[in-house]
Design a protein that fits this description.
The chain has 202 residues and is mostly helical. The chain has one domain. It is 51% helix and 9% strand. The protein has ten helices and six strands; from the N terminus they run αβααββαββααααβαα. The strands form three sheets. It has a two-stranded antiparallel sheet. Strand 2 and strand 3 form a beta hairpin. Helix 2 crosses helix 9 and helix 3 runs antiparallel to helix 9. It starts with a helix and ends with a helix. It binds iron/sulfur cluster (SF4). The site of iron/sulfur cluster (SF4) has 10 residues, from loops.
Length: 202
């Protein structure tokens, strides 16, 4: 399958997830604290390379792939490469510099559940949201057990790996995931022609 076909399938999967998340958020009124980037600033985030294929494709299309790959190879910081610090006092204040192309993990965290050992969905979210909304979290936790109306991590990762098993089924540190995705696109277009009309469709 071509890179562009994979990118389109991943974007379609993300669009379906975004729809489910919107429904979940409308129902629960649960949202991140404004300006908080604590989870993006976490040095231990992991992701699959495949979820960053749309990001790496648009980096390639914009002509910055080699430059960004160099930056990823020379990274000194451990936080996510795309995290943009907005405060010199507090590292946890910031945002994603390419929110539109963020990965699957970034979309799921705080908006999805994993299935616990009793077979019940359990919301995966951060400490700040839990501490700020204890009653709401309690209510949501009980609602999702009865309604099952919440995106599941396993479901979306399984659907992602069906697009490309090799790139979708390995989980690595987030910056390495971006690097592998970028190398995949560069490698693909060193053997396949790149049509400039794609520049407008990306
Ligand atoms: S890609 Fe963006 S949303 Fe995802 S962890 Fe990095 S900065 Fe945060």
């Amino acid at each position: 399958m071509s890179i562009i076909s994979k990118v389109r399938l991943i974007e379609h999967l993300f669009a379906q997830l975004d729809k489910e998340i919107n429904t979940f958020r409308l129902k629960t009124n649960l949202d991140c604290v404004s300006g908080c980037g604590k989870c993006c600033n976490n040095p231990d985030i992991e992701a699959s390379p495949l979820e960053f294929l749309p990001w790496s494709f648009q980096v390639f299309v914009s002509g910055k792939a080699e430059d960004i790959l160099k930056q990823l190879n020379n990274l000194q910081e451990t936080g996510c490469f795309l995290y943009s610090h907005l405060s010199i006092i507090d590292d946890n204040i910031g945002n994603c510099s390419d929110y539109y192309h963020r990965g699957l993990i970034c979309r799921l965290f705080g908006n999805a559940a994993h299935v616990n050992k009793y077979g019940n969905p359990e919301l995966i979210t951060c400490k700040i949201i839990k501490e700020n909304n204890p009653e709401k979290i309690k209510q949501i936790s009980s609602d999702i057990i009865s309604s099952r109306n919440i995106p599941l991590f396993t479901d979306y990762y399984m659907r992602l790996s069906q697009i490309d098993f090799k790139l979708g089924n390995i989980i690595v540190p987030i910056n390495l995931a971006m690097k592998i995705a970028l190398e995949e696109v560069l490698n693909y277009y060193s053997y396949h022609p790149f049509h400039s009309r794609l520049r407008h469709s990306a």
